[in-house]
Amino acid sequence: QVQLVESGGGLVQPGGSLRLSCAASGFIFSRAIVDWYRQAPGKQRGLVATISSGGSTYYADSVKGRFTISRDNGKNTVYLQMNNLVPEDTSVYYCHTTWGPGYWGQGTQVTVSS
User: Could you tell me if 53 and 71 are in contact, meaning their C-beta atoms sit under 8 angstroms apart?
Assistant: First the structure.
């Protein structure tokens, strides 16, 4: 079965960095589009970044220049490098793929606070 397992979240001070990982299994990862979404308390889940099977990327305006999405097809893993974090980045971050009907990971909490 398809599984997406996020890791790498935690507590970081403003201006700090974190790298999230999404380990995938159960589908042909190299052919799949993979996204990162985030959801803050009381807000809708929103798209953060997307990477295509060919490596093309898209970023939400709020994270452009600070976040970088990448993939390692040999490890079936997508990464989200987050730099210069601000309190507004505090959210649960979810990995998602459009493969088949679409699948979500369980999420990882990122808290940016001093």
Answer: no
